[in-house]
C-alpha cells in the first residue's frame, strides 16, 4: 500500500510540481506582461507629458497671428476713417488749431460736420471725431468736465464761422450764469451784428424769435418747393439765409412755454439753418439732436458710445478774436457780391430770347434769393437810374447789359451808349488795341463826352431818325407797334434799341440851343419810342440831373422804371425812402414810377471788373454773326488822325472812281462830306445812308478841303467845298496855334490828294514862329507843288497872285494860299507899292480868286484883326464864305459872319475844338475836332 501511497504522493507531488511549474511560468508570463505594460505606461506617460507644451505653443502662435492681423486691420481702418473724416470736414472744419484758418464753403458745397476731438486707437493714427451742426442738427453737451465742454463749444463755433462766408453764421448767446463770459472771445462779432447776447430773462424771447425765423423761412423761402435750406442751396447754388446758431449755456428750469419752443426748434430748426448748441438744458430725443458727454477721461458721442474721444484743446484765444474781428470787418465792409454768372443763362440758352414784346433780364437776387428782373417794353418803356458817385451805377449798367446781351442776339437787341463823365470803362464794349473783342450788340459807344454835348445831340437825332423810319414802316404795314411790325414783317431787321446815357443831365445843362433841342428830342423819343422799341436808360449821380427832368413832367412820366442805388435822392417817389437804408451793392428796382408798393430790393453782382466782363464779351464775340462790325467808338479825349479818316482815305483826283467803302469803318463806312449841316444824320448802319460809293471827287462841284472830324454818330469829316464860286475861302479864327495849324494842314493835305502831282499850286506863308514847325512839315509833305514864303516876300506873293488873276482870262491851275497868322503881316502888307498895298492885293485875291480857282485858306489870330485886314469894321465879309472859330467867343461872330437871327452862334470855346460854319450850306455852326498832326 505504501506504493499506492507513494504513488499517490508522487502523483500529488508531480501534480503539485506541475502546478507549481505552471504557476511559475504564468507568473513569469504575468511579470513579463506587467513589465511590458509598465513599459507601455511609461511610454504613454512620457508621450502624455509632451502633448500640452505643443498644443499651447500652437495656440499661442495662432493667438499671436490673430492679434497681428487684428492690429493691422485696426490700423488700416483707422487710417481710412481718418481720411474719410478729413474729407468730410476739410479745411476749417477739421484742421488742428495750429495753422487753422477760415476756409468758407464754395458755391453749392455743404458745410459738413465739425471736428471736436480725436479718437486714439493703439498703433493707429488719431481719427477725427466729427459732430454734425450746420444744416444738419443740434449739439447737446453734458458731463462732469466743464472746461472740456467749454472747449467743445468754442471749437464748434469757431469751426462754423470758418466754414461759412463772413456774415452767414449768426450767433445768439444765452449764458445766464457767466453772462456771456463763455463766449467772450467771440465778442468782436457783435460789432457787425453777428453775435447777440440775451440776458438771464431773455430765453423765452430768444426762442420765440428762433421759432418765428423758422416759420418765416418755411413759408417764404422754402415755400413748399424745398424741404430744407440745404436742398435749396444744392439746387440753386444760392443760400438766401444765414445759419443761426443759438448757444444756450445752462440756467433755471425752463417754463412750459420755453420748453415747448425749445422742442420746436430742436425738431424743425435744422432744415431752416437754425441750430442749437446746448449745455445744462435738456433737449428732447429728436433725430437731429446729437449728444456728447464730456468727462474727465474724455468724451463719448451718442453715435459711437464705445469709443472714447479725446476733445481738442480750446482754440487759442487770439485765433478766436482775430477770426471774429476779421469776419466783422468784412461784414461791415458790405456783403460779398453775388457772382455775375448768376445773371447769365446756361451756355446752350444764350441768344435764345425773342424781343418782339419786351426785353426781360435778371439784374440780381432778391432777399429770398430769387432773381429780380428788369423789363423794357411797352410798359415800362424807359428807365431812370440814380445814386451818388461810387454807389454802383456803372456796375449796374454793365450787369444789365450783360444780362440782356447774353439772352438776346444782336438781331433782337442793339445798344447805344453815351458816358458824359470822364472815364473809359465803357470803351471796352468797342474794339480796342489791347483786346480785339467787342460786344456784338453795341453800335455806338461815346466816352468822355463831358464837353461835347453835340455828340449826345447827334445820338438823339440819330435815334429820332430811326424812330421815324420805324414809324413809317409801321404805317406802311398798317400797324402801330414794334411787336406787330415784327409779326407782319418777319424778315425785316427790327431789333429793340436800348440807348444808355450816363450823367445825362450834362445834355440838358444850360439854356442854349443844344439843351433845348436835346430836351425836345428826349421828350419825343420817350413818348413815341415806347411803341417802336426804342428804350432810353438815363443815369445820373447828381440830384440836379434828376431835377433837370423834373421841370418836364411829361418826360419824367415816361420813365416808369426807376432804379435807385443806396442813398439815391429823387429817383423814387417823394415819400419812398427805401434807398436811404439800402446796403452797399444793392438797388431798389421799381417799375411803378417809384411808388413804395413797387419796391423790390436786389443785390447786384459785380459785373464791371475787367476779368468778369471780358469772359462774357469774348464768348458773345465768338458767337457774332459773320458780317458783324465793331461799335463806333467816340472818345472825346482822343484826337482823330487825318490819315485814318475814311473820308480822307477815299479822296481821289478828279475823274478817278472812289472804291466802294462798305464795311470800311466800324460804324458802317465813311460818308462823303457833302457840306451838309450837323442837323443831317444817318443811321450808322443800314443801306439808306447817303453818299453813293461811286462818287468822284474834285469834279464839277470842286475839290473839298477836310477840316476836322464832325462830332456825330459817324466818324465823318467836315468838308469845305471849293468850287469856282465867290467867297470860297476859309478863315481860321483865334489864337490856338496848334488847332489852327491842324485845320490848315488837314485842308491842304486833303486838297493835295485830289490833284495829280504838278497840277495844283500850294503857297505857304508862315508869319508866326510858333507855327513854323507845323507849316514847314506841311511844306515838306506837299513836295514840289508847294512854295514857301516868309514875311519878307509875302507882299510879293500877294501882288503876284492878285496880278495873275487878270480879269476875263481863263482860270489857270488851282492855287491854294495857306497863310499862317496872316494878321502878323499887317506891317509888310500895309506898305503901298505903285499905289496898291499888300492888303489891297489880299482883298483882291479873296474877292476874285475863287472864281479863278485861287482859294485863300488863312489864319487870323482874332476876328477884329481879320476885319481890319478886310477893310475895317464896316467892310463886307462875304469873301469869307466859311470859317472855323477856335478860341473866339460866339458874340464876336456877329451877323456879318454868322447870318441868321439872334447874334452869334452858341459857341463856348474849348481846347481842340472848333466851330465850322460854311455860309453856303450851314444853318448853324458845326463843332469839329481838328485832326492831330499827320505822321
Ligand atoms: N454790386 C457790386 N458788387 C461789387 N462791387 C461793386 C458793385 N457795384 C459797384 N461795385 C464797385 O464799386 C466801385 C464803384 O462802382 P461804380 O463805378 O459802378 O459806381 P458809380 O455809381 O458808377 O460811380 P461814379 O458815378 O463815380 O462813376 C467800383 O469799384 C465797382 O467795382
UniProtKB/TrEMBL annotation:
Residues of the FtsK domain: 369-574
GO annotation, biological process: cell division
Residues given in the record as ATP binding sites: 387-394
Keyword list, A-Z: ATP-binding, Cell cycle, Cell division, Nucleotide-binding
Matching InterPro entries: FtsK/SpoIIIE/SftA (IPR050206), FtsK_dom (IPR002543), P-loop_NTPase (IPR027417)
TM stretches of this protein: none
Region (Disordered) residue spans: 672-700
Protein name, per record: Cell division protein FtsK
Amino acid at each position: 500500500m505504501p506504493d499506492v501511497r507513494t504513488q499517490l504522493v508522487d502523483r500529488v507531488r508531480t501534480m503539485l510540481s506541475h502546478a507549481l511549474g505552471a504557476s511559475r511560468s504564468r507568473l513569469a508570463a504575468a511579470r513579463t506582461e506587467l513589465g511590458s505594460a509598465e513599459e507601455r505606461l511609461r511610454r504613454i506617460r512620457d508621450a502624455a507629458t509632451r502633448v500640452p507644451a505643443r498644443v499651447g505653443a500652437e495656440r499661442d502662435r495662432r493667438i499671436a497671428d490673430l492679434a497681428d492681423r487684428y492690429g493691422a486691420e485696426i490700423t488700416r481702418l483707422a487710417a481710412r476713417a481718418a481720411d474719410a473724416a478729413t474729407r468730410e470736414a476739410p479745411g476749417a472744419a477739421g484742421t488742428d488749431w495750429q495753422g487753422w484758418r477760415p476756409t468758407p464753403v464754395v458755391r453749392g458745397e455743404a458745410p459738413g460736420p465739425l471736428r471736436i476731438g480725436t479718437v486714439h486707437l493703439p498703433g493707429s493714427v488719431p481719427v477725427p471725431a466729427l459732430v454734425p451742426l450746420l444744416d444738419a442738427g443740434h449739439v447737446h453737451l453734458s458731463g462732469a468736465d466743464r472746461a472740456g465742454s467749454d472747449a467743445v463749444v468754442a471749437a464748434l463755433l469757431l469751426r462754423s464761422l470758418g466754414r461759412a462766408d463772413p456774415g452767414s453764421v449768426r450767433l445768439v448767446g444765452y449764458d445766464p450764469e457767466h453772462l456771456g463770459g463763455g463766449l467772450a472771445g467771440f465778442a468782436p462779432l457783435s460789432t457787425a451784428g453777428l453775435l447777440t447776447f440775451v440776458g438771464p430773462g431773455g430765453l423765452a424771447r430768444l426762442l420765440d424769435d428762433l421759432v418765428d425765423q423758422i416759420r418765416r423761412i418755411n413759408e417764404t423761402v422754402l415755400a413748399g418747393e424745398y424741404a430744407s435750406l440745404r436742398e435749396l442751396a444744392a439746387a440753386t447754388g444760392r443760400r438766401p439765409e444765414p445759419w443761426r446758431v443759438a448757444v444756450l449755456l445752462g440756467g433755471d428750469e425752463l417754463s412750459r412755454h420755453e420748453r415747448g419752443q425749445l422742442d420746436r426748434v430742436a425738431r424743425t430748426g435744422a432744415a431752416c439753418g437754425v441750430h442749437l448748441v446746448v449745455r445744462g438744458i435738456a433737449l428732447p430725443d429728436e433725430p437731429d439732436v446729437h449728444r456728447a458727454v464730456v468727462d474727465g477721461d474724455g468724451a463719448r458721442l451718442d453715435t459711437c458710445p464705445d469709443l472714447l474721444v479725446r476733445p481738442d484743446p480750446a482754440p487759442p484765444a487770439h485765433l478766436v478774436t482775430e477770426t471774429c474781428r476779421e469776419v466783422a470787418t468784412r461784414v461791415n465792409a458790405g456783403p460779398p457780391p453775388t457772382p455775375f454768372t448768376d445773371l447769365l443763362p446756361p451756355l446752350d440758352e444764350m441768344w435764345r430770347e425773342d424781343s418782339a414784346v419786351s426785353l426781360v433780364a435778371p439784374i440780381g437776387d432778391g432777399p429770398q434769393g430769387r432773381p429780380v428782373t428788369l423789363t423794357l417794353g411797352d410798359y415800362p418803356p424807359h428807365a431812370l437810374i440814380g445814386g451818388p458817385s461810387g454807389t454802383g451805377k456803372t456796375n449796374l449798367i454793365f450787369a444789365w447789359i450783360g444780362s440782356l446781351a447774353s439772352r438776346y442776339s444782336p438781331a433782337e437787341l442793339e445798344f447805344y451808349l453815351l458816358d458824359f463823365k470822364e472815364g473809359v470803362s465803357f470803351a471796352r464794349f468797342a474794339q480796342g488795341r489791347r483786346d480785339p473783342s467787342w460786344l456784338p450788340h453795341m453800335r455806338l459807344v461815346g466816352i468822355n463826352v463831358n464837353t461835347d454835348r453835340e455828340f449826345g445831340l447827334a445820338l438823339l437825332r440819330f435815334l429820332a431818325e430811326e424812330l421815324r423810319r420805324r414809324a413809317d414802316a409801321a404805317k406802311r404795314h398798317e400797324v402801330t407797334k414794334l411787336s406787330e411790325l415784327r409779326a407782319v414783317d418777319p424778315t425785316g431787321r427790327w431789333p429793340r434799341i436800348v440807348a444808355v446815357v450816363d450823367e445825362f443831365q450834362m445834355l440838358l445843362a444850360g439854356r442854349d440851343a443844344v439843351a433845348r433841342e436835346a430836351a425836345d428830342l428826349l421828350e419825343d423819343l420817350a413818348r413815341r419810342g415806347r411803341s417802336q422799341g426804342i428804350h432810353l436808360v438815363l443815369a445820373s449821380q447828381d440830384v440836379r440831373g434828376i431835377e433837370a427832368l423834373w421841370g418836364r413832367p411829361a418826360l419824367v412820366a415816361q420813365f416808369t422804371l426807376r432804379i435807385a442805388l443806396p442813398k439815391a435822392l429823387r429817383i423814387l417817389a417823394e415819400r419812398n425812402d427805401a434807398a436811404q437804408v439800402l446796403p452797399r451793392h444793392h438797388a431798389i428796382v421799381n417799375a411803378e414810377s417809384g411808388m413804395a408798393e413797387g419796391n423790390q430790393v436786389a443785390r447786384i453782382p459785380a459785373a464791371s471788373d475787367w476779368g468778369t466782363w471780358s469772359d462774357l464779351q469774348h464768348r458773345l464775340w465768338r458767337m457774332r454773326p459773320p458780317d458783324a462790325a465793331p461799335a463806333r467808338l467816340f472818345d472825346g479825349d482822343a484826337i482823330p488822325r487825318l490819315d485814318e479818316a475814311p473820308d480822307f482815305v477815299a479822296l481821289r483826283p478828279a475823274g478817278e472812281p472812289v472804291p466802294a467803302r462798305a464795311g470800311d469803318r466800324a460804324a458802317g463806312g465813311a460818308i462823303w462830306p457833302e457840306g451838309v449841316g450837323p442837323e443831317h444824320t444817318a443811321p450808322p448802319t443800314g443801306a439808306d445812308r447817303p453818299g453813293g460809293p461811286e462818287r468822284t471827287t474834285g469834279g464839277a462841284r470842286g475839290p473839298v478841303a477836310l477840316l476836322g472830324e464832325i462830332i456825330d454818330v459817324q466818324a465823318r469829316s467836315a468838308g469845305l467845298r471849293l468850287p469856282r464860286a465867290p467867297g470860297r475861302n476859309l478863315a481860321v479864327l483865334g489864337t490856338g496855334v496848334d488847332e489852327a495849324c491842324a485845320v490848315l494842314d488837314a485842308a491842304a493835305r486833303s486838297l493835295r490828294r485830289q490833284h495829280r502831282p504838278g497840277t495844283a499850286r500850294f503857297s505857304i506863308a508862315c508869319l508866326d514862329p510858333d507855327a513854323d514847325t507845323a507849316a514847314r512839315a506841311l511844306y515838306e509833305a506837299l513836295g514840289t507843288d508847294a512854295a514857301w514864303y516868309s514875311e519878307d516876300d509875302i507882299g510879293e506873293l500877294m501882288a503876284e497872285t492878285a496880278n495873275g488873276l487878270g480879269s476875263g482870262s481863263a482860270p489857270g491851275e488851282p492855287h491854294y494860299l495857306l497863310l499862317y497868322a496872316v494878321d502878323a503881316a499887317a506891317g509888310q502888307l500895309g506898305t503901298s507899292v505903285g499905289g496898291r498895298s499888300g492888303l489891297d492885293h489880299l482883298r483882291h485875291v479873296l474877292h476874285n480868286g475863287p472864281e479863278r480857282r485861287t482859294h485863300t485858306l488863312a489864319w487870323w489870330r482874332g476876328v477884329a484883326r481879320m476885319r481890319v485886314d478886310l477893310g475895317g469894321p464896316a467892310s463886307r465879309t462875304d469873301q469869307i464864305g466859311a470859317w472855323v472859330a477856335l478860341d473866339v467867343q460866339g458874340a464876336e461872330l456877329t451877323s456879318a459872319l454868322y447870318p441868321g437871327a439872334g447874334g452869334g452862334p452858341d459857341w463856348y470855346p474849348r481846347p481842340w475844338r472848333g466851330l465850322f460854319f460854311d455860309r453856303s450850306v450851314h444853318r448853324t455852326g458845326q463843332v469839329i475836332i481838328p485832326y492831330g498832326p499827320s505822321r
